[in-house]
Amino acid sequence: MTIRLPEIVKKYLAASGGYGKSVAIPMLGIPAAEIQRSFDFLDEDYHISRYFHFQNIPGADSKAGIVINGFPQTHISIDPDIQSIL
Prior knowledge:
Elements: H1 5-16, E1 23-24, H2 32-43, H3 46-49, E2 52-55, E3 66-68, E4 71-73, E5 75-78
Antiparallel strand pairs: 1-5, 2-5, 3-4
């Protein structure tokens, strides 16, 4: 089962302190397998994925990385406009 979008956004805001700020994916407090499944699914939906910005920051803690649709990622930021679809 994938975690729902509102829950991901809630956890992101708690970890980042606000929209548009980059945060290490493990800071979301979601198990890696679950976050990978959820982000794989959400990344394929243009209406949702346009608000997500993934980064693979060189030198980031190797435990911070997950693979999303075949690409390693360590950090995420979410645009405030995502509120329009929540």
